[in-house]
Design goal:
The chain is mainly beta and 139 residues long. The chain has a single domain, classed as Metal Binding Protein, Guanine Nucleotide Exchange Factor, Chain A. Helix content is 12%, strand content 43%. It has helices spanning 33-38, 121-131, and strands at 2-6, 12-17, 25-30, 41-43, 49-54, 60-63, 71-75, 83-88, 91-97, 101-102, 109-114, 135-138. The protein has a seven-stranded mixed beta sheet, with helices on one face. A hairpin with a 7-residue loop joins β7 and β8 (83-88). The chain is globular. The two termini are 21 Å apart.
């Protein structure tokens, strides 16, 4: 399944190749304060292939907080965060916002709350290496 997504204005767009076609897509609603305020609901497929296109790089700003181990890619034109990335051991990993999807049947989304309180930085990075998309390219 090829999933297309983008911020509201289309400046930050992505395609996510999800094979095999999912019968459901996990949609993790993070309970951190940033995600609560932005409605962050994230998904990833560790075997997926993610391609991100930033049309105007001057209108994209990375935002870090907490452990400063992830970049939330914010479109400064429309304010949407469609992609989050993390460099781990020299490799780029990512998750995408299900709220940025275009044309995906909402019945495929399986929303669940996620709590990361008390998770140490080492555990957090190990979880991302296991669960986040590992084939990521920005252009």
């Amino acid at each position: 399944m090829l999933i297309n997504g983008k911020c509201h204005c289309g400046n930050i767009a992505f395609t996510l190749q999800w094979d095999p076609d999912p019968t459901e897509i996990p949609a993790r609603a993070c309970d951190c304060t940033f995600c609560q305020k932005h409605g962050g609901v994230w998904t990833s497929n560790p075997g997926g292939v993610l391609r991100v296109v930033v049309r105007d790089p001057t209108q994209r700003r990375p935002y870090q907080f907490g452990t400063r181990t992830a970049d939330f890619h914010i479109c400064t034109r429309c304010g949407v965060v469609p992609v989050v990335t993390s460099y781990i051991d020299g490799h780029l990993y990512a998750v995408v916002s299900v709220n940025a999807f275009d044309g995906v049947d909402p019945s495929l989304l399986r929303r669940s709350p996620m709590h990361f309180d008390g998770e140490g930085t080492g555990d957090r990075l190990a979880r991302r290496k296991r669960n986040w998309i590992s084939d990521v390219e920005f252009s």
